[in-house]
Amino acid sequence: MAISGVSRLRGGLGIAALCYVGIDYLRRISPSWHATLQPKLWLVLALAAICRAPFYPHWSTELRSVLPFLGSLLFMLVTLALEATSVHFVTALLGLDWHRTALPLPDTGQWLFLALNEKLPTVVVQVLRAPLIGLHHYLMLFLMLAFSVLFDCVKAPGLGLGARYMFTMAVGRLLRVITFLSTILPSARPWCASARFEIPNHPHPWLQKYYVPYASDPNMIRQLLQEDMSNAPIGDYPAEIIPEWGRMKFLVNILRPSSAVLSGDGTSWFSTLKRTGGGCNDLIYSGHMLVAVLTAMAWTEAYPGWTSAGIWFLVLHSTQREIRERHHYSVDCIVAIYVGILLWRTINLFWSAKDQSKTLRLEQLAQIEGRLVQAAKDADLDKVREMLYELNNPVQGQNPTKQALLGFAAIVIIFSLGIGLLAFTLTADG
Fold first, then answer.
1. Which residue of 124, 135, 145, 332 pairs with 120 in a disulfide if CB–CB is 3.0 to 4.6 A?
2. Quick check: keyword Metal-binding in the entry (predicted)?
3. ∠303-43-40 over CA atoms, to 5°?
């Protein structure tokens, strides 16, 4: 009976994930049904987690994962701030005039999907065009996976899984920043920068000297290769605007505001940075696809089966939409897929929490082996259960009280639900 109950709970995770994606898609085809069903689904999922939390037997195991979780969260937030600043920088560096005139790169993936639109049945093309899933869906799917540890759908600790996910995400974002800062590529949507950024029309003074003179004259490039020095005359450009941003003044050279009026309040630098969104250069590789792939990898490892296969189908659907809608070039999505897979596998080799846990349990088993055998000989089942519970829920130092664990459980549930709500709100627009 217990085994069948666990089996039903494991199957229920896949159904819950499918319901979440399906109900959220109703906003496209039936907003009234979406407005009715989505709050009810969120309420059911939240209440299920809250009601199950007091009976979850592995809170002491979760407690050991708090520091890695908080460290990974901080690392990810720092890399996201660095990424947002870098995204704005690569757009502001060249100025709006360059973005308006730079031609998109030739992309065989875009051509392929245009050709398929003419060959495939209309229904298939409509399915390919449909916005089935977005960035916030993948984040919510991972959150559901991590919370499912409460129902024994995945192995504890859930905070450990979350820590690894955020750490891998942070490393991937850091590598992405290094990649797109190395070579600036034109956007597949030439109008994007003018619509979303308030930056000067002219390039940064650095580029006025080192890029503009050589951008369109092959003879100047030959001269540069011969001399290996930049001696070309610099054109006449407007002076850079330097608003009063106080301690954040160092960001002026990075964000390049187009007007000093923006500095009227103390948060203007943040308002300028907030407009970045996803950027308007081609940012190789795709951050959206990295999130999608890491979510699919987490599901594949922790909860293999038809649900994981379905999520990989959604990843492929997202890939072709990113290319079809010209949010990214094909190379950005392809690189994001194999970088995400390799990162998840590689970090797993160095993510020692699981191996340390196994080593600790083996050491503790060796310590209690004699007492365990004696309790078994004495048919003292209560003693055997007590020792096995201590083995499966080891905590270094003094064992926390039940009240302390329940308090910790409440903090984790509230904090995790808060993160989920914040992520959903900030990423709902893509």
1. 124
2. no
3. 105
pLDDT at 353 over 80: no
Decide: 419 and 412 in contact? Cβ < 8 Å. no
375: tokens are 């309790």
In total, the chain counts a number of residues equal to 430
* Cα gap 150→297, rounded to integer Å: 20
Residue type present at position 390: E
Q: In 3D, which of 3, 38, 50, 20 has the Cα closest to residue 307?
A: 20
Q: Using CA atoms, how far apart are residues 199 and 225, in angstroms rounded to an integer?
A: 32
Is residue 198 within a helix (H) or strand (E), and if so which, with residue range? none
* DSSP secondary structure letter of residue 200: -
Under a CB-based contact definition with an 8 Å cutoff, are residues 157 and 61 in contact?
yes
Residue 284 Ramachandran class (φ > 0 left, ψ -120 to 50 alpha, else beta): beta
Give the E-state strand segments of 38-176 in sequence order: none
Cα–Cα distance for residue pair 125/348, rounded to 1 Å: 38
Residue 429 has pLDDT above 90, yes or no: no
Which amino acid, residue 48?
Answer: A
Peptide bond connecting 285 to the previous residue in cis, omega within 30 degrees of 0: yes
Burial of 41 (0-12, 13-18, 19+ CB in 10 A): middle
Contact (Cβ atoms closer than 8 angstroms) between residue 334 and residue 158: no
Which of 284, 20, 41, 37 lies closest to 136 in space, CA to CA? 20
Which of 279 and 220 is assigned the larger pLDDT? 220
Region 194-199: what's the mean pLDDT?
Answer: 84
Q: Could you tell me which of 49, 36, 4, 155 has the C-alpha nearest to residue 409?
A: 49
